[in-house]
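Class prep. Sample record?

___
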Amino acid sequence: MAEFAALRRAPAVSAFAELRLLPPATRFVLRGDAGATCAAGAAVGIDIEEAPCRASQQGTRAALWLGPDEYLLLGPEAEAHALATALEEALRGEPHAPYRRQPPANRPRNARPAGR
Protein backbone atom coordinates (compact mmCIF):
# COMPACT_ATOMS: atom_id res chain seq x y z
CA MET A 1 0.00 0.00 0.00
CA ALA A 2 2.84 2.40 0.71
CA GLU A 3 3.94 2.34 -2.96
CA PHE A 4 0.45 3.50 -4.09
CA ALA A 5 0.53 6.40 -1.63
CA ALA A 6 3.85 7.50 -3.10
CA LEU A 7 2.27 7.66 -6.59
CA ARG A 8 -0.58 9.90 -5.43
CA ARG A 9 -0.07 13.58 -6.26
CA ALA A 10 -2.01 16.69 -7.18
CA PRO A 11 -3.27 16.86 -10.79
CA ALA A 12 -1.02 18.68 -13.25
CA VAL A 13 -3.99 20.64 -14.60
CA SER A 14 -6.25 22.56 -12.27
CA ALA A 15 -9.90 21.55 -12.17
CA PHE A 16 -11.32 24.89 -13.28
CA ALA A 17 -14.32 25.36 -15.57
CA GLU A 18 -15.73 28.49 -17.10
CA LEU A 19 -19.24 28.90 -18.41
CA ARG A 20 -20.27 31.86 -20.52
CA LEU A 21 -23.12 32.67 -22.84
CA LEU A 22 -22.19 32.73 -26.51
CA PRO A 23 -23.97 34.81 -29.13
CA PRO A 24 -26.74 33.16 -31.17
CA ALA A 25 -25.41 30.88 -33.91
CA THR A 26 -26.73 29.27 -37.05
CA ARG A 27 -26.03 25.57 -37.52
CA PHE A 28 -25.82 23.33 -40.58
CA VAL A 29 -25.22 19.60 -40.67
CA LEU A 30 -23.15 18.44 -43.63
CA ARG A 31 -22.86 14.83 -44.77
CA GLY A 32 -20.66 14.13 -47.74
CA ASP A 33 -17.41 12.80 -49.10
CA ALA A 34 -14.06 14.60 -49.08
CA GLY A 35 -15.02 16.65 -52.16
CA ALA A 36 -18.18 17.96 -50.55
CA THR A 37 -16.34 18.67 -47.30
CA CYS A 38 -13.63 20.61 -49.13
CA ALA A 39 -16.22 22.59 -51.16
CA ALA A 40 -18.25 23.42 -48.05
CA GLY A 41 -15.14 24.47 -46.15
CA ALA A 42 -14.08 26.80 -48.94
CA ALA A 43 -17.61 28.26 -49.09
CA VAL A 44 -17.70 29.14 -45.41
CA GLY A 45 -14.01 30.06 -45.13
CA ILE A 46 -12.80 27.17 -42.95
CA ASP A 47 -10.09 24.59 -43.58
CA ILE A 48 -12.13 21.62 -42.30
CA GLU A 49 -10.07 19.12 -40.33
CA GLU A 50 -10.67 15.55 -41.54
CA ALA A 51 -9.07 13.86 -38.52
CA PRO A 52 -11.60 12.25 -36.15
CA CYS A 53 -12.90 14.16 -33.13
CA ARG A 54 -11.50 17.51 -34.20
CA ALA A 55 -12.84 21.01 -34.71
CA SER A 56 -11.68 23.76 -37.04
CA GLN A 57 -12.30 27.44 -36.44
CA GLN A 58 -11.72 30.56 -38.46
CA GLY A 59 -12.94 33.79 -36.90
CA THR A 60 -16.61 33.41 -35.95
CA ARG A 61 -17.13 30.21 -37.97
CA ALA A 62 -16.38 26.64 -37.00
CA ALA A 63 -16.70 23.04 -38.22
CA LEU A 64 -16.98 20.16 -35.75
CA TRP A 65 -16.35 16.54 -36.74
CA LEU A 66 -19.39 14.40 -35.88
CA GLY A 67 -18.54 11.23 -37.79
CA PRO A 68 -16.53 9.92 -40.75
CA ASP A 69 -18.64 11.88 -43.24
CA GLU A 70 -20.58 14.30 -41.03
CA TYR A 71 -19.78 17.79 -39.77
CA LEU A 72 -21.59 20.47 -37.80
CA LEU A 73 -20.97 23.90 -39.35
CA LEU A 74 -21.46 26.93 -37.10
CA GLY A 75 -21.61 30.62 -37.87
CA PRO A 76 -23.13 33.84 -36.57
CA GLU A 77 -26.91 33.90 -36.75
CA ALA A 78 -26.77 37.19 -38.66
CA GLU A 79 -24.91 35.38 -41.48
CA ALA A 80 -27.40 32.48 -41.78
CA HIS A 81 -28.75 33.47 -45.20
CA ALA A 82 -25.31 34.22 -46.64
CA LEU A 83 -23.91 30.92 -45.35
CA ALA A 84 -26.89 28.95 -46.70
CA THR A 85 -26.49 30.56 -50.11
CA ALA A 86 -22.74 29.95 -50.17
CA LEU A 87 -23.19 26.29 -49.16
CA GLU A 88 -25.94 25.75 -51.71
CA GLU A 89 -23.79 27.11 -54.51
CA ALA A 90 -20.63 25.27 -53.41
CA LEU A 91 -22.36 21.90 -53.01
CA ARG A 92 -24.22 22.02 -56.31
CA GLY A 93 -23.00 18.97 -58.23
CA GLU A 94 -21.20 17.46 -55.22
CA PRO A 95 -22.54 14.18 -53.81
CA HIS A 96 -23.86 15.02 -50.34
CA ALA A 97 -26.89 14.60 -48.13
CA PRO A 98 -29.02 17.72 -47.92
CA TYR A 99 -27.85 19.84 -45.07
CA ARG A 100 -30.43 21.27 -42.77
CA ARG A 101 -30.41 24.38 -40.73
CA GLN A 102 -31.18 23.34 -37.20
CA PRO A 103 -33.83 25.38 -35.38
CA PRO A 104 -32.68 28.07 -32.97
CA ALA A 105 -32.02 26.82 -29.44
CA ASN A 106 -34.82 28.98 -28.01
CA ARG A 107 -37.48 27.43 -30.29
CA PRO A 108 -39.48 24.62 -28.67
CA ARG A 109 -38.67 21.19 -30.13
CA ASN A 110 -42.28 20.45 -31.01
CA ALA A 111 -42.91 23.81 -32.72
CA ARG A 112 -43.68 23.54 -36.45
CA PRO A 113 -43.61 26.26 -39.07
CA ALA A 114 -47.00 27.58 -40.12
CA GLY A 115 -48.69 25.56 -42.84
CA ARG A 116 -47.15 22.19 -41.92
Q: What stands out?
A: Residues 4 and 10 are 14 Å apart (CA to CA). DSSP finds three helices and five strands in the chain. The helical segments are 2-7, 34-44, 80-91. The radius of gyration is 20 Å.
